[in-house]
TrEMBL record:
Protein name, entry field: DUF6950 domain-containing protein
UniProt-listed Pfam families: DUF6950
InterPro entries reported in the protein's UniProt record: DUF6950 (IPR053802)
Domain DUF6950: 5-133
Organism: Mesorhizobium sp. WSM2240
């Protein structure tokens, strides 16, 4: 199975399903993708069940990008200065909600688990906060 096919199947598994905080929100969904690709679970993301609890965890870490950097380091996955490639994960700054975790698809598209389900973003380069090559 190609990376594109693997990602498509991963996305389709949650198609039409609203987000469950702490289970398949923008952070835990991207972490599940990392496990899908690498076979290793992302540690240290913390436990939460609501948006408010997620924000508390993020604030205590110093930001979503810091939380992700700390969580991916034990897996020897580090930020890359390169443009995101198919299957990479990252943090994108949105005008409405601030930083969100995403999985990058092809052609500059980022996949995001929004409250109502999976959404497509086309972030500008300046809005891509961090990228980790998976």
């Amino acid at each position: 199975m190609t990376r594109a096919e693997q990602l498509q199947a991963f996305v389709m598994a949650v198609e039409g399903k609203p987000v469950e905080w702490g289970r398949d929100d923008c952070t835990t969904w991207a972490a599940a993708w990392v496990k899908e690709v690498t076979g290793r679970a992302v540690p240290q993301l913390g436990s939460y069940a609501t948006l408010e609890e997620a924000h508390t965890l993020i604030d205590e870490a110093g930001g979503l990008d810091v939380l992700w950097s700390m969580a991916l380091a034990p897996l020897s996955i580090y930020e890359t200065p390169d443009q995101p490639q198919l299957g990479d994960v990252g943090i994108v700054n949105t005008a409405r909600l601030g930083h969100v975790g995403v999985i990058f698809a092809q052609d500059g598209i980022a996949l995001w688990r929004a409250i109502e389900g999976t959404a497509l973003l086309r972030p500008r380069s300046r809005d891509i906060v961090k990228v980790w090559h998976i």
